[in-house]
Structure formats: C-alpha cells, structure tokens
Amino acid sequence: MEPYIHTVQYYETDRMGITHHANYIRWMEEARVDLLIRIGWPLERLEAMGLFIPVVALDCKYKSPTTFADRVQITVSLVKWGGVRMTLSYEMRKEDGALVCTATSEHCFLDPAGRIVRLQRDYPEVFQSIHGLLPDGKE
User: Fold this and answer.
1) Is residue 138 part of a domain?
2) CB atoms within 10 A of CB 98
3) Residue 138 has what pLDDT?
4) CA 41, CA 91: separation in Å to the nearest integer?
5) Can 14 be counted among the known catalytic residues?
6) pLDDT for 15-37, tens place per residue?
C-alpha cells in the first residue's frame, strides 16, 4: 500500500522551528483514515453503519525531527488482528529516507452505545477487508 504523505505546516512547529511532538499522533490519524478510504471503508461510512474505532493504546518513538515544509511519508501496517482489537504500526520517513518516528496504535470497535463489536460476526465484510491487510501467514 502506498504511504500517506504529510507536509509539515508552519503552525505545527514550535518556537525552535521543530515539529511539536503531539502532531505526529495527529498524522497517525490522518494516515489511518487514509488507509480506511483505500480499503473501501471511509470513516464516514463505518460511522453511518454504527461502527466506531477509538484508540485504546498508543506508543510513539521519535527518531529525528522534522521542520516546516518537510514531506513525511507515513506507512501504516496492520500487525495484530483479532476481530475485536487491531494494532497498527506506523513508520514515518522524510523524503530523503531519514527515519522520523515509529509508532503503534491499538483500537477496538464499538457500537453507538459503547459496546464492543465483534466484526467477524456482526460486520463480516469489514472484517474481511481489514483481515486482508495482514501480511501473509499472520493472524
């Protein structure tokens, strides 16, 4: 899957001209939403079906800084999938290949009342699309 590209905006930088650390988490969400669009399940469609995907855990390791106008390639991969929870990994690199950040986010699936949804049973078409993101041989 093609990486998501984010161009660092001036307002995302701090007084030293370095991207503020909280922005990387926002970029993860941008890349995750883009991934859902690419697999045919835009967030708006999922929410209209009554499916919500909150973040339940997050881990982020900063490797090198970015500054205004840097273009950051964000690769999102599904690394763990059980039908109720999923874990995504993110690798962020500048155009020159320099590693900027590695991260993971863990998500569950909820209905509008906040109850856990079992996708394989309740939304098999969504389950299959997400399952198809797993590298060969992984469950």
Assistant:
1) no
2) 14
3) 56
4) 22
5) yes
6) 999 999 999 999 999 999 999 99
